[in-house]
DNA sequence: TTGTATGCGTTATCAT
DNA sequence: ATGATAACGCATACAA
């Protein structure tokens, strides 16, 4: 089999307890012993078996991040922020992709139940509020990026309603009065919150809310294009469009270009997320930036805090968003 | 503490051994006991502690996938293929991102050394051949997508040389004689193999190889644009460009558009990978498709096979590529 | 078919 | 400062 702490102890001429002490940086061990042990560890190329260690300590120092898709650079950036911070405080981040299926998500959650990880962060989830609340009673769970209505679970996200308000207000201040909204029928709280922000902005600036300017389907790429076709067929076409995701905005934009419409001039388009692609396409896309690193860091920090608490923090923390103007809005 | 197999046994009025047998689907247990045990498991909401189980069984049934970036949809698709297959054979896939740093990669490899996972699949790695060979002696390691020269380690990838040959041959058959190549200076075997394929294609079709048509920098997005600027400044500009990655091709394409050049007509551009973005941009990008699902499935299958072998399979398996023609080559 | 007992590799407690 | 040993939760060899 593989080499164990026992082998090291025997070779170094000390007890396993001493080796363990060296391994865990206890101060109650002589310099001589420390040296001997470290030498043999290096010589035998010993690496402690974490299954044994974790079993004994009842902790793994590993956090699992479950995301609906790995093709979303927003998530990638958030996970990066998580890893940065987690590494600093001695935790590892592992990720799993659920592909938005509850079966995969359930399966992955097993790592929480079977004690393979200390906690789970969900970047958008299939779970409903009740399930989440029950889950959070016994386990360390956090939501990031996407809250769940009615869930009293630690959450970190932008203020979606306010962010959408700011985005639409920006368009209005540019002179737009007919503003289309591309949303989704998903149960995602962010989608409805952004719709609410859109509506509030119109109201506050005294613009009539028209149902024909609200198009809702799904987050799939093609839906953006379909939305644009729909808007473009209206008698009074919108002069600006706000989409709840960059991908939808990009899809709409490309449909517009296909139709020979000058995006940024004939029509202004604004997305949400600030994924990398926004700067890679022509024209570049105006959008609402989510502070990915900060979100990742904060949710990990709060989750770890929760691990040592009996009464868990279940706040909904919001982080600052930022409007970024690029060519698609004529900037 | 949390509920254990002992609690279940006591509650069900049987021994822990019987509970364990039920848990592991042993046939040597009476229907009555099975029923009683399953009932109490459900009632107590018991979930076995895998740290104990894994420690005992010396296996975790978990495979770690380390990738340089999670922003590459090629990798996402491959991991999806891995998960599909792994799930079927009772394995879990977890992922970690190294951000192309050897420190992160080394840290993540610890999960292999400390027995937290049964094997590791590297989607492009910082390790050199010697390190990999030594690693593969004692652990279950596989490379996917990107081989390492001189490494005798289980590898699954496309035939990069032949794929590049086919791509360039396709351009030649379309009548192109001045073909630019955008590569990288990275040590990645795929990059040089694709360059070799490019050169062989020119040779076989009797076209002179000119150094000025070969531009090499890095995989960063901007390099594609710089490459195009360079080509466009030549006295005899290439009429077609083959890039070793879709992102480089897209960057070059956008630079061309910026310069008012009609991609697909004035210049043909072909990428490599067939990432989702190829179909999302205008014009759509011709490219070489890598069979992601198949690659993921194959590498997991072979790696699991290796786990039960004393002499490990260290073959370099190639999977079929496919040329996809879209608007960027005038199709 | 079932139960008892052992050990997986580690840390922590208790002596010394 | 160090060592002997119990315990973490589980699967399994062995006995019954």
Automatic annotation (TrEMBL), chains A, B:
Span-the-membrane segments of this chain are none
A Pfam match is LacI
Q: Does the keyword DNA-binding apply?
A: yes
Can you name one GO molecular function term for this protein? Answer: DNA-binding transcription factor activity
Extract the SMART domains matched here: HTH_LACI
Q: Which PANTHER family match?
A: CATABOLITE CONTROL PROTEIN B, LACI-RELATED TRANSCRIPTIONAL REPRESSOR
Write the protein's name. LacI family DNA-binding transcriptional regulator
């Amino acid at each position: 089999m593989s080499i164990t702490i026992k082998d090291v102890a025997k070779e170094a001429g000390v007890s396993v307890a001493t080796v363990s002490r060296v391994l865990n940086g206890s101060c109650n061990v002589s310099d001589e012993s420390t040296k001997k042990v470290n030498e043999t560890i290096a010589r035998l190329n010993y690496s402690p078996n974490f299954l044994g260690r974790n079993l004994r300590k009842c902790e793994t120092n590993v956090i699992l991040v479950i995301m609906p898709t790995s093709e979303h650079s927003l998530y990638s950036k958030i996970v990066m922020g998580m890893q940065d911070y987690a590494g600093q405080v001695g935790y590892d981040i592992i990720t799993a992709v659920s592909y938005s299926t509850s079966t995969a998500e359930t399966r992955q959650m097993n790592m929480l139940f079977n004690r393979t990880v200390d906690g789970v962060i969900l970047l958008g989830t299939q779970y409903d509020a009740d399930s989440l609340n029950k889950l959070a009673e016994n386990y360390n769970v956090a939501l990031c990026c996407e809250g769940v209505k009615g869930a009293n679970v630690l959450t970190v996200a932008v203020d979606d309603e306010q962010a959408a308000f700011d985005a639409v207000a920006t368009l209005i201040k540019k002179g737009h009065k007919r503003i289309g909204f591309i949303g989704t029928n998903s149960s995602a709280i962010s989608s409805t919150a952004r719709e609410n922000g859109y509506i509030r902005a119109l109201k506050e600036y005294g613009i009539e809310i028209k149902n024909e300017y609200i198009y809702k389907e799904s987050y799939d790429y093609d839906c953006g294009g379909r939305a644009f076709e729909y808007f473009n067929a209206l008698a009074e076409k919108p002069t600006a469009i706000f989409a709840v995701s960059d991908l939808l905005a990009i899809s709409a934009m490309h449909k517009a270009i296909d139709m020979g419409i000058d995006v940024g001039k004939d029509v202004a388009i604004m997305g949400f997320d600030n994924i990398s692609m926004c700067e890679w396409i022509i024209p570049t896309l105006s959008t609402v930036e989510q502070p990915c690193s900060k979100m990742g860091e904060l949710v990990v920090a709060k989750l770890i805090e929760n691990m040592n608490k009996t009464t868990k923090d279940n706040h909904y923390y919001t982080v600052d968003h930022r409007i970024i103007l690029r060519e698609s809005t004529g900037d």
